[in-house]
Design goal:
By secondary structure, the protein is mainly α. The protein contains nine helices and no strands.
Length: about 200
Amino acid sequence: MELVKYILIGSGFAFAAAAQPGPLQAFYLSRVASGGWRKTLPAALAPLISDGPIAFLILSLLHRLPEGFENYLKAAGGLLLWYFAVKTFLEWRRGRDGVAQEEQSAPRTLFQAVAVNAVNPGPYLGWSLVLGPTALEAWQQTPAHAVALIAAFYVTMVLSLALFILLLGTTSFLGPRGRRGLLLAASLALASLGIYQLVSALGGV
């Protein structure tokens, strides 16, 4: 029963995290609108790549992170989101002016998604407040419980993000005008999230 408990904790927390609107979801929206779901789908693996160093850092320094660390992350994330917001807006402008949109490869999209997630406070908070303490608790019982917790979390996270990208991909049936509308919406969402993170970071200083 303990094993099932940790699997449920991991999968439930992952689904809740993936379902919440955030920087990574807004980035996926912009990439699907620009290049389609097929090139964006590999970016669902971003948490697997970015969270390794995050998990190591949090587990090594749990409860000992320097004061203001979260605010620095929010500020860096806000600037990165603004960069992608401007980039997405320019793609929307090129489409409006009849200029071909920039082609972007799947590996490049994955790399950019990893960068967005690496400066997103969410994974740091998740590991420091939920996953980290729970993983340590599970490890004290048996390493298998900790492995099950983490595996359940990342399997559910990747599958949930992949489903989100696939659902966004249905917008391809809307035609060029619908996809251009999504580009503009994604640009506004990225800019709004960037402003929020910057204001939140300044407010916490």
